[in-house]
């Protein structure tokens, strides 16, 4: 795995900003507010954060479904072109797996049609039957022929999610972007689907960006994790490092409130702030427990926390944190 | 004496396709001030259990057994008495607060309604109490004028909790109270529930698919599978050292971050939970069980003392003396 992570990224975000007009004239929402993110071939990256942090918008932008307001998306080093022809070619290589398979499958299409749809769109009709069968068995639905004529309502939740994954696999992509791939599944079934994603990486070298709020999922399958807060990645690095010795107070708080987490939970009060009004200085400073305690002042960074944006983290695979306090503790290692 | 005592409860739904047993003989007791977690996956009967406790099930459901609440049998209670027990004796926090709140009524009025009906308080007194309850669950009293859509998911769940507390119940049944909430909001709500329950000595029956949340919040845990409790005991014993293979699998499905055993090794169970209308013979779990024995399709074991901790029990032949072989019907044994 380590050598594959060294190789050139297959999909990247380069200083991506995505803004939306807020619904009721409330100004512009900066859903993604400067993100660099690289996904290497065969690498599983978990993008974690709470609802509204911009993780789904970033994923949609990486899929070409949303155009960045500024910055760009690179596919194998080349900027993504937003013509329908170029996007169609791009989507053979980068496929989306949606959450909630009951919503993403057409109830009136058979499993066969659902999986074959991608092939038909791309005009790969000749060996359709074999390729559908192959995708279904890779997704763990065996023997595939038994599932061809079934309808979604005849399948269990886990089986439906496998059909959605088969639909993504049939075009033989190199990257999948999965948005909460197991959030709607039962706990005992979830492990099987996650094991499938790991197996696909091992067998096919498939890279994945998994968007989730579930840190346990990241621990289960990801190589690298990027923690997003209010439009920015605030901490990133290898899963073992970030999930066991996080440096950003936000990551620390997220981990501390998990059931079974050691130590006392740091429960952040209030709701995550609004992307139309991103606080100045460090965007987390209004909720930051380190600033609220005297630790940031003792380290002499409290003015910076309130007034200086810690900046946008670079892409790549290095461990990085966008926090004045964390950087002040280890100045030589951290350079956001 | 236990505040809530459920004995051999069964719930069967009559459908066009025949009878569907949703709860198949469940017994448990909950003492005053105790917190019991009921865990299980979709279709295991845990939400049916919650509704059965306050007789909120549809007419197509047939109940047998006994539910004693504070010494009275809820199943034979008159409707008038039952109405008094609901809210004032026991109240429910449902999952999905958006759908449980009235979308076109201000939340203050919704909280005040049960207070007016149950305590015969005047309009003004009920409003005042609603404001106090909102403060109590961490919302400013002026939010009483808000409509549900003006609140976030976490705030709506706080309103649900304020309503559940409105008539000072002895028992709160919380059915997936934090499902669909973000981890930080979930932590806020769980901290709130825990502190309210401790402060007011309320008993809590919390129902969830998330065994790790229950283990963190509750004193005791019961794990349901296919309409039965298959494992119960002190929370730490059930989550950390389950004896039923399903209890073990469910506990393993929640990875502990930092534990090398679950790193790059997601744990799941092959297969799906059974359809309640077509349960497998013998132990309902045997088709998915990794450690099943030859006679598991012939024996349906009941709960048996197993594992560590007070009252820890598991319903698996492996905890029985002689692996439960003595329970095998003669026909199967000779075959």
UniProtKB/TrEMBL annotation, chain A:
<dbReference type="GO" id="GO:0015833">
    <property type="term" value="P:peptide transport"/>
</dbReference>
<dbReference type="InterPro" id="IPR027417">
    <property type="entry name" value="P-loop_NTPase"/>
</dbReference>
<dbReference type="Pfam" id="PF08352">
    <property type="entry name" value="oligo_HPY"/>
</dbReference>
<keyword id="KW-0547">Nucleotide-binding</keyword>
<dbReference type="InterPro" id="IPR003439">
    <property type="entry name" value="ABC_transporter-like_ATP-bd"/>
</dbReference>
<dbReference type="Pfam" id="PF00005">
    <property type="entry name" value="ABC_tran"/>
</dbReference>
<dbReference type="InterPro" id="IPR050319">
    <property type="entry name" value="ABC_transp_ATP-bind"/>
</dbReference>
<feature type="domain" description="ABC transporter">
    <location>
        <begin position="11"/>
        <end position="255"/>
    </location>
</feature>
<dbReference type="InterPro" id="IPR017871">
    <property type="entry name" value="ABC_transporter-like_CS"/>
</dbReference>
<comment type="similarity">
    <text>Belongs to the ABC transporter superfamily.</text>
</comment>
<dbReference type="GO" id="GO:0005524">
    <property type="term" value="F:ATP binding"/>
</dbReference>
<protein>
    <submittedName>
        <fullName>Peptide ABC transporter ATP-binding protein</fullName>
    </submittedName>
</protein>
<dbReference type="GO" id="GO:0055085">
    <property type="term" value="P:transmembrane transport"/>
</dbReference>
<dbReference type="InterPro" id="IPR013563">
    <property type="entry name" value="Oligopep_ABC_C"/>
</dbReference>
<dbReference type="InterPro" id="IPR003593">
    <property type="entry name" value="AAA+_ATPase"/>
</dbReference>
<keyword id="KW-0067">ATP-binding</keyword>
<dbReference type="GO" id="GO:0016887">
    <property type="term" value="F:ATP hydrolysis activity"/>
</dbReference>
<keyword id="KW-0813">Transport</keyword>
Automatic annotation (TrEMBL), chain B:
<dbReference type="GO" id="GO:0005524">
    <property type="term" value="F:ATP binding"/>
</dbReference>
<keyword id="KW-0547">Nucleotide-binding</keyword>
<dbReference type="GO" id="GO:0015833">
    <property type="term" value="P:peptide transport"/>
</dbReference>
<keyword id="KW-0813">Transport</keyword>
<protein>
    <submittedName>
        <fullName>Dipeptide/oligopeptide/nickel ABC transporter ATP-binding protein</fullName>
    </submittedName>
</protein>
<dbReference type="Pfam" id="PF08352">
    <property type="entry name" value="oligo_HPY"/>
</dbReference>
<keyword id="KW-0472">Membrane</keyword>
<dbReference type="GO" id="GO:0005886">
    <property type="term" value="C:plasma membrane"/>
</dbReference>
<keyword id="KW-0067">ATP-binding</keyword>
<comment type="similarity">
    <text>Belongs to the ABC transporter superfamily.</text>
</comment>
<dbReference type="InterPro" id="IPR003593">
    <property type="entry name" value="AAA+_ATPase"/>
</dbReference>
<dbReference type="GO" id="GO:0016887">
    <property type="term" value="F:ATP hydrolysis activity"/>
</dbReference>
<dbReference type="InterPro" id="IPR003439">
    <property type="entry name" value="ABC_transporter-like_ATP-bd"/>
</dbReference>
<keyword id="KW-1003">Cell membrane</keyword>
<dbReference type="InterPro" id="IPR050388">
    <property type="entry name" value="ABC_Ni/Peptide_Import"/>
</dbReference>
<feature type="domain" description="ABC transporter">
    <location>
        <begin position="4"/>
        <end position="251"/>
    </location>
</feature>
<dbReference type="InterPro" id="IPR013563">
    <property type="entry name" value="Oligopep_ABC_C"/>
</dbReference>
<dbReference type="InterPro" id="IPR027417">
    <property type="entry name" value="P-loop_NTPase"/>
</dbReference>
<dbReference type="InterPro" id="IPR017871">
    <property type="entry name" value="ABC_transporter-like_CS"/>
</dbReference>
<dbReference type="Pfam" id="PF00005">
    <property type="entry name" value="ABC_tran"/>
</dbReference>
């Amino acid at each position: 795995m380590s050598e594959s992570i060294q190789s050139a990224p297959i999909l990247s975000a380069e200083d991506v900003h995505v803004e939306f007009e807020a619904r009721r004239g409330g100004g512009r929402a900066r859903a993604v507010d400067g993100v660099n993110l690289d996904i290497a071939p065969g690498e599983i990256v978990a993008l974690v954060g709470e609802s509204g942090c911009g993780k789904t918008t970033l994923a949609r932008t990486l899929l070409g479904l949303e155009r960045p307001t500024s910055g760009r998306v690179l596919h194998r080093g080349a900027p993504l072109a937003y013509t329908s022809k170029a996007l169609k070619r791009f989507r053979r290589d980068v496929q989306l797996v949606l959450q909630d398979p009951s919503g993403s499958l057409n109830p009136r299409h058979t499993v066969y049609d659902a999986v074959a749809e991608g092939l038909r769109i791309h005009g790969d009709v000749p060996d359709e039957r074999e390729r559908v069968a192959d995708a279904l068995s890779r997704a763990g639905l065996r023997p595939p022929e038994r599932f061809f004529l079934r309808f979604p309502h005849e399948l269990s939740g886990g089986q439906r999610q496998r059909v959605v994954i088969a639909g993504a696999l049939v075009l033989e992509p190199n990257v999948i972007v999965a948005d909460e791939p197991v959030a709607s599944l039962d706990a005992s079934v979830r492990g099987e689907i996650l094991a499938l994603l790991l197996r696909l990486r091992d067998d096919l070298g498939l890279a994945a960006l998994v968007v989730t709020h579930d840190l346990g999922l990241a621990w289960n399958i990801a190589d690298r994790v990027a923690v997003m807060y209010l439009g920015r990645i605030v901490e990133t690095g290898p899963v073992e490092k970030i999930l066991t010795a996080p440096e950003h107070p936000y990551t620390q708080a997220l981990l501390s409130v998990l059931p079974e987490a050691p130590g006392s939970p740091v429960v952040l009060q209030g709701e995550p702030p609004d992307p139309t009004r991103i606080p100045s200085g460090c965007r987390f400073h209004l909720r930051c427990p380190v600033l609220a305690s005297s630790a940031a002042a003792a380290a002499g960074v409290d003015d910076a926390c309130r007034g200086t944006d810690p900046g946008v983290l670079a892409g790549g695979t290095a461990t990085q944190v966008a926090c004045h306090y964390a950087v002040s503790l280890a100045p030589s290692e951290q350079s956001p | 004496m236990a505040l809530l005592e459920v004995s051999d409860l069964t719930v069967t739904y009559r459908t066009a396709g025949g009878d569907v047993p949703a709860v198949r003989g469940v017994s448990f007791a909950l003492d005053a001030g105790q917190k019991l977690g009921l865990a299980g996956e979709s279709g295991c009967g845990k939400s049916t259990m919650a509704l059965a406790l306050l007789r909120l099930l549809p007419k197509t459901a047939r109940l047998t057994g006994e539910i004693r609440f504070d010494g009275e049998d809820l199943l034979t209670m008159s409707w008038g008495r039952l109405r008094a027990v609901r809210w004032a004796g026991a109240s429910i926090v449902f999952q999905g607060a958006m759908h449980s709140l009235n979308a076109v009524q201000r939340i203050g009025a919704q909280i005040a309604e049960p207070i007016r009906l149950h305590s015969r308080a005047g309009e003004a007194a009920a409003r005042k109490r609603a404001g106090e309850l909102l403060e109590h669950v961490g919302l400013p009293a002026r939010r009483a004028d808000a409509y549900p859509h003006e609140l976030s998911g976490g705030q709506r769940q706080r309103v649900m909790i304020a309503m559940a507390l409105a008539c000072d119940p002895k028992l709160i049944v919380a059915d997936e109270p934090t499902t669909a909430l973000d981890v930080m909001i979930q932590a806020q709500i769980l901290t709130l529930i825990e502190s309210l329950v401790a402060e007011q000595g309320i008993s809590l029956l919390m129902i969830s698919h998330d065994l790790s949340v229950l283990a963190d919040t509750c004193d005791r845990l019961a794990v349901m599978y296919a309409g039965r409790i298959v494992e119960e005991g002190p929370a730490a014993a059930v989550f950390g050292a389950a004896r039923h293979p399903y209890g073990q699998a469910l506990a393993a499905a929640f990875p502990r971050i930092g534990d090398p055993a679950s790193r790059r090794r997601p744990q799941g169970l092959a297969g799906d939970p059974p359809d309640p209308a077509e349960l497998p013979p013998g132990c309902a779990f045997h088709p998915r069980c990794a450690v099943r024995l030859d006679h598991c399709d012939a024996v349906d074991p009941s709960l048996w003392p197993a594992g560590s901790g007070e009252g820890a029990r598991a319903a698996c032949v492996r905890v029985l003396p002689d692996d439960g072989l003595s329970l095998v019907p003669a026909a199967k044994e000779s075959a």
